[in-house]
Amino acid sequence: MHMNSPLSRWTRRALLSALTCLPLAGIAQSAPPTKILVGFPPGGSADVLARLMAEAMSPALGTVLVENKPGAAGRLAINAVKAAKPDGHTLLLVPSGPMVMFPHVYKKLEFDPAKDFTPVSLIARFQFGIAAGPASSAKNMAEMVALAKTRPDAATYGTAGQGTAPHFLGVMLEQTTGVPFLHVPFQGGAPANTALVGGHVGYKIDVVSETAELHRAGKVRVIAVTGPERDPQVPEVPTLKEQGVDMAITAWFGLYGPAGLPADVAAKIEKAAAAAVRQPGLRDKLVKLGYQPVGSTGAELAAAQRVDLASWRKPIQSTGISLE
């Protein structure tokens, strides 16, 4: 076919048009995904919540992935987000403990919760559970205390890390009951579960969802929950107050970006997070996992952080615990 034919000219125009579009397509495909960093191993409560949120937020934000950076009681992930570029592509899903307790715990904390991050949304509130494993015969708090008095060597409790909220719940439990317990920190809830089921620790204090399934399977026994009301995951388990222990503790998960996140970018992520939590399907999943769905504004998360930072100061200082 001769190159000057009408069909050839059309073919050349179509080819040039297609080639002109290729760079644009390449740019669209190369847009980086949004990463939600979690400071604990896969399979734990933080990881599960992050993956549910990532899936629900993807329609609004594009590809959203979860990256686990376990270690140092969540501080590895926190510091990674602190150092990230404030472009909205690196986020942090974190329980409230590091943001409201660590400043009172660590002598030299690598980050400032109030200055190094942009609050985006308080995703959900939750409570903790105290679970007994095969190494303990306790079926309630009275039996746990009685056993600890007779067998101090077996009064060990595992948590997801030193300086975390469950760690201090154990310390406060000691103060309230007058019985010493030995803290055994792990790098996350899943490793602590393995130790609990294996009889390496007598008890575990963690988010209720971490041990609820093991409780239902009869591998461990959740003997108390720490909130003001019973938890829907284990409705048969009484609260601490119902068992005569004068404590009521709850916490929350917050979504943050690095400091300096542009207002329009923060607003877009905040809107996506709030919309995700409002989805009936996701709300039902969160409730079944023992969470009280919130999906707040960034300003509301900042306010909750300030209130809890102040409220934890005295209880933590009263323990005398200070970490490097």
From TrEMBL:
Transmembrane segments: none annotated. It comes from the Bacteria. Pfam families: TctC. Residues 1-30 form the signal peptide. Keywords: Signal. The keyword Signal applies. The keyword Ligase does not apply. InterPro entries: BUG, Bug_dom1. Belongs to the UPF0065 (bug) family. This is ABC transporter substrate-binding protein.
